[in-house]
From TrEMBL:
The keyword Iron does not apply. PANTHER family: BLR8175 PROTEIN (PTHR30547:SF0), UNCHARACTERIZED PROTEIN YHCG-RELATED (PTHR30547). Keywords: Endonuclease, Hydrolase, Nuclease. InterPro entries: PD-DEXK-like_domain, tRNA_endonuc-like_dom_sf, YhcG_C, YhcG_N. Residues 32-168 form the YhcG N-terminal domain. Gene3D superfamilies: 3.40.1350.10. It comes from the Bacteria. It comes from Lonepinella koalarum. It holds the Pfam family YhcG_C. This is Putative nuclease of restriction endonuclease-like (RecB) superfamily.
Length: 348
């Protein structure tokens, strides 16, 4: 290689190094792009929310019109709900109760333009709260306007309705945009679940737990994930449902990404009772519940057995173990579950 060629090569490398150096305004530019992305996502979420609310209004309006013209009753609504759930299994908005809310929604707000421009900006949960808790048209309109102008969350809206805000007019601020991002009807409509990032973590954890239980080879048979139960017209979804062939029992698995809360035990017991009532055969044993909760430092895993005299005891975020000794040998121990899931990573 001649001297001229070597000199040219060094000059090219130096230029490339200079070209790869971040410009001085890069940090500011990145911040501006991130802000634009956040704004665009927010606009997209609000637009999709409006489409969902308008869709629900249209369905409700058609139910009203067809009932008036054809005179059919609740059996058609039940059939419609079943057919829509079969066609769109990832959407949770087609229970009988929610179809009746759609009907009431369309009956309450007859002006579709108002739906598009006003109540369509509120999450569906807000709208259900307004039409079910308030009887006066003026009161409903008042809370719609306040929820929009003050950016109320659903919890704040519920509290203000309960406290008769329209008679006191306090000054309250909240985050409607964040509430919209959490609205389960919206994200089910999009096919993303309650929150895309949280759903990704949940999906990975569910896959991990499912694989672990099945690989134990102790009799777990997989039934389904987000297993749907309908109780008195309302829908509920079990995280994981198994059947244990040796114990002849259904096994309900509930996963919580947070520390244990007392309401988790109540929810689990409700699922156990519902499975016993709807799925358990006469010769099956009572349904077993497994609750997995992640605390700040470790995983709390505990069994509860439907039909055992309790309540579940809670102390220092630890559950009292209630599984009878004659069943413990057929199920993974709390220690095994903690060891398996304590080091759980998203990519597992």
């Amino acid at each position: 290689m001649c001297l001229h060629t070597i000199s040219f090569w060094h000059h090219t490398v130096e230029n490339n190094m200079d070209n790869n150096t971040l410009p001085s305004d890069y940090t500011q530019w990145l911040a501006e792009i991130k802000q634009r992305v956040a704004q665009a996502r927010h606009k997209a979420v609000l637009a999709v929310n409006t489409e969902l609310v308008c869709l629900y209004w249209q369905i409700g309006r058609e139910i009203l019109e067809r009932q008036a013209q054809q005179g059919w009753g609740s059996k058609v609504i039940d059939r419609l709900g079943r057919d829509l759930r079969e066609a769109f299994p990832d959407m949770k908005g087609f229970s009988r109760a929610n179809l009746m809310y759609m009907r009431a929604f369309a009956e309450t707000w007859t002006d579709f333009e108002f739906v598009q421009q006003a109540v369509g900006q509120l999450p569906w949960g807000h709208n259900v709260l307004i039409i079910t808790r308030l009887k006066s048209a003026d009161e409903r309109l008042f809370y719609v306007q306040k929820a929009l102008s003050e950016h109320w969350s659903r919890t704040t809206l519920e509290v203000q309705i309960k406290n008769n805000l329209h008679q006191r007019l306090p000054d309250i601020y909240s985050t409607l945009a964040q509430e919209t991002l959490k609205d389960p009807y919206l994200f089910d409509f999009l096919g993303l679940g309650e929150d895309a990032q949280e759903r990704e973590i949940e999906d990975a954890l569910v896959r991990h737990v499912t694989r672990f239980l099945l690989e134990l080879g102790s009799g777990f048979a997989y039934i389904g994930r987000q297993y749907r139960l309908e109780v008195n017209g309302d829908e509920f979804f079990i995280d994981l449902l198994f059947y244990h062939t040796r114990l002849k029992s259904y096994v309900v698995v509930e996963l919580k990404a947070t520390a244990f809360k007392p309401e988790h035990a109540g929810q689990l017991n409700f699922y156990l009772a519902a499975v016993d009532a709807q799925l358990k055969a006469d010769d099956d044993n009572p349904t077993i519940g497994l609750l997995l909760c992640r605390t700040q430092n470790r995983l709390v895993a505990e069994y509860a057995l439907s039909g055992i005299d309790k309540p579940i005891g809670v102390a220092e975020y630890e559950l009292v173990r209630h599984l009878p000794e004659n069943l413990q040998s057929s199920l993974p121990t709390v220690g095994q579950l903690e060891a398996e899931l304590g080091d759980f990573e998203l990519g597992d």
